[in-house]
Amino acid sequence: MNLVDSFGLGLLQAAVLLALAPLLRGTIKKLKAAFQNRQGPPLLQGYYDLAKLLGKEPVRSDVSSWVFVAGPRVYFATAVAATTLVPVIVAGAPLEEAGGILVLVGLLALGRFFLAAAALDTGSPFGGMGSSREMAVSALAEPALMLGLFTVALWGGSLNLGDLVRTTAARGLSAHPSDLLAAAALFIVLIAEAGRVPVDNPATHLELTMIHEAMVLEYSGADLALVEWASALKELLFMTVLVNLFLPLGLATGVGAAALAIATGLYLAKLFLLSVGVTLVEVTNAKLRLFRVPELMSASLGLAFLALALRFL
Amino acid sequence: MSQDLVVLCAAGMLVTAYLMVGQKALFTAIRLYAIQSVLLGGVALVMGLAGHNAHLLASAALTIGLKGLLIPWFLMRVIDRIGIRREIEPFLNVPSSLLICLGLTVVGYRVSTRLADGAQGAAHHVIGVSLSMLLMGLFLMVTRRKAVTQILALLTVENSVFLVALGATSGMPLIVELGISFDVIVAVLVLGVLVHRIVDRFDSMDVSRLSKLKG
Question: d(Cα A272, Cα A268) in Å, to the nearest integer?
């Protein structure tokens, strides 16, 4: 594949995932509402919200600097760039030559850093509190993410997500305990990174319990739309990595129309199953006290470490 | 395929045991135990189906029904009735407990690779997981204060013994399993009554208070 094609495919994949991301959030909201005997917002509410926010002029504080403006843009750009490194329905990523696991984690960390810095920029106490909390959580989530991905990389013999998915797809469903342990660890990381209930509450209105929401409290209009959209994309990205690394059934290896259709259907079904899992965790657990979050994250880190250790035993 | 499913279920049991160490809500611990028992039943079910072994199927049904549903329900009822704080207060904090359990798992696995018969493939993983769970159950028993959590630790140990029996042999005779299941139920019932008595006496489930003289 030549460079122009790869870039084209990367753009296409990013666009499709961007279009899909608000629907994923809507689905989880709807599922959660169904579990709680509520009707819940319409499935497409995420798109309405984004359209509304994008049409509004962002209000920025007089005392803020360029960092405040750059924050959401860098966050959005890194999330979009990260999507091009991840295999979605074909066993291979469009820009997989550009980098693997390390680049993926690095890009996400860069976006998070910029958003946290931007939240500090206005000098609002809630922004500062939010970024300090976000950093505290991610300092524990990131090593767990790295170790979990390294466990898969160790088996596949490559740090490249495209290569890894090709080897796992060729081998089929894995039967090594370390894969299940790594998947459990990454599931906890997914919950932390997506700001889901035991760690953070995406629907909270109480500033004192906010983590992610506190960081973006100062944003409005199109800036807020970028942050929300990128967060939804990041959640979709994590779920995609999780389902494709640990359940690589049905990934298309060719480019036939039938194979692609089956792969798309299976991918959506796997995403839906994972969403049900996330929703079940959300409805059966109460939000943890902030000082309990490190305990959950250390469980995730421990599971990931154990997964890596079991490969050598 | 059936070997893969067995290993997957066993690994799931290890994850639940590990999460049991890693969190503090009492009800979640009981739910994790229920999941663990259902997975154990899954191991027996898969082995029974693959080996056309009727008494394994019976013991799978027994495991899922008794340990997956009845015992968790009973424990939750005990907790509801005595109305204690629904939080586990361990002697050790969570991160260090997790670290110790990590070490215990490595020990369990290491021992299973050195077994005389050189357990291979699925049996290796199943025995490794069950030895690790056995050690983790013992660890839970000595570091947890509350009587109910000690019952859970005992039940985890029992699950791991059952798993090692499944992994090493292909299941015990049905009569032995019936006996063990019956024992477990009686043990849980007696312990439930004991918990009631402890709470009556001390207004707490903290077993460390049992060692103090009361005048």
Answer: 6
Report the mean per-residue pLDDT for chain A: 89
- Return the residue in A147, A171, A178, A181 with the most chain B beta carbons within 10 A, the one to mutate for interface testing: A181
Handedness of CA A310, A279, A28, A108 (dihedral sign): negative
Rounded-to-integer distance, Cα A277 and Cα A238, Å: 14
Give pLDDT, residue B85.
Answer: 65
A172: left (phi over 0), alpha (psi -120 to 50) or beta: left
- Tell me, what DSSP letter sits at residue B206? B
Output the pTM of the full model: 0.91
Are the C-beta atoms of A61 and A122 separated by less than 8 Å? yes
**B102/A305 CB distance under 8 A:** yes
Query: H helices of A58-208, where?
Result: 66-83, 101-121, 125-156, 161-171, 177-193
Flag if B23 and A295 touch (Cβ within 8 Å): yes
Closest partner CB to A306 (pick from B23, B102, B113) = B102
Contact A274, B1 (CB under 8 A): no
Query: From CA A90, how far away is CA A12, in angstroms rounded?
Result: 13
Angle, alpha carbons A306-A310-A312 (nearest 5°): 130
* A299–chain B nearest CA distance, Å: 6
Residue-wise pLDDT for A139-189, tens only, equals: 999 999 999 999 989 888 889 888 888 888 777 666 788 888 999 999 999
How far apart, in whole angstroms, are the C-alpha atoms of residue A68 and residue A219?
9
**CA angle, B18 then B23 then B29, to 5°:** 80
Residue A228: band (very low, low, confident or very high) from pLDDT cuts 50, 70, 90: very high
Q: Which structural domain range is residue A54 located in?
A: 3-310
Q: Which two tokens stand for residue A278?
A: 């996330």
| Predicted confidence (pLDDT) per residue in B41-66, tens digit | 999 999 889 888 888 888 899 899 99
What's the domain count of chain B? 1
Q: What are phi and psi of B146, to 5 degrees?
A: -80, 145
| B3 interaction partners in chain A (CB closer than 8 Å) | 175
Of chain A, the percentage scoring pLDDT greater than 90 comes to 56
Instruction: Write down how long chain A is.
Output: 313
Q: Among all residues of chain A, which has the CA nearest to that of B103?
A: A306
- Residue of A194, A177, A304, A174 lying closest to A247 (CA atoms): A174
Structural domain of B200: 2-211
Q: Which residue intervals of B85-212 are DSSP H helices?
A: 94-113, 121-143, 147-168, 174-202
Beta-carbon contacts below 8 Å between A and B: 75
Cβ-based contacts of B5 with chain A (< 8 Å): 175
The first and second tokens of residue A311, run together, are 């490969």
Q: Mutation test of the interface with chain B: which of A282, A306, A312, choosing the one with the most B Cβ atoms within 10 A?
A: A306
Across chain B, mean pLDDT equals 85
Q: Is B8 exposed, middle or buried (0-12, 13-18, 19+ CB in 10 A)?
A: buried
Domains of chain A: total: 1
B8 and A175 within 8 Å at the Cβ level: the answer is yes
